[in-house]
Amino acid sequence: LKEENASLRSKINKLQIFSETQADKMRKLERKLEENKIKEEKEAQDLEAMVQHVEQNLQLMTKRAVKAENNATKLKQENALLQVQLKNYKTENEALRSGQSASLAAVKQNADLALQNLLTVITNSRSSIKQLVSGAESLQLVADLLRSVDRIAEV
Asked: What is the separation of C-alpha 37 from the centre of its chain, rounded to a whole number of angstroms?
């Protein structure tokens, strides 16, 4: 019985040591798991912040594109108005040439002024159209970036 007792105590000691070793391993793994959870939470927060930043940029670019579109429409309307004025000035110029109206110099001055205004509007229209195209390209880039962010989030 003493031998068996000693043998069982030895086994119990070994099992206690083994149990403590396993408990230590378990605590280390639990700490590691907690560290990983914290790390993943931080990464998720960072990703969320990035997504919000991209969304804000997208909204800003959308506003800019709408503004550029409105500006282009306004400039096109102004361009059409100036073309009508130019046509009227040309008609008046022809009338002056035939001797039906005021002096030729005034008509020429009006036509030159209309032409200058028309050229200014055309130049401004081109600039606004370029801005609109640039805004559309930026929106496409942001959309592609959002798709990439979605893929990253899925992974």
From this structure: 31
| Listed residue (133, 3, 152, 155) closest to 64, CA to CA | 133
**pLDDT value of position 155:** 66
> Residue 10 in 3-state DSSP?
helix
Alpha-carbon distances of 71 from 88, 113, 149, rounded to whole Å: 26, 23, 33
Q: What is the DSSP string of 33-86?
A: HHHHHHHHHHHHHHHHHHHHHHHHHHHHHHHHHHHHHHHHHHHHHHHHHHHHHH
Q: What is the pTM of this model?
A: 0.41
Q: What is the pLDDT of residues 94-127, one digit of tens each?
A: 877 776 545 666 768 888 888 898 888 888 888 8
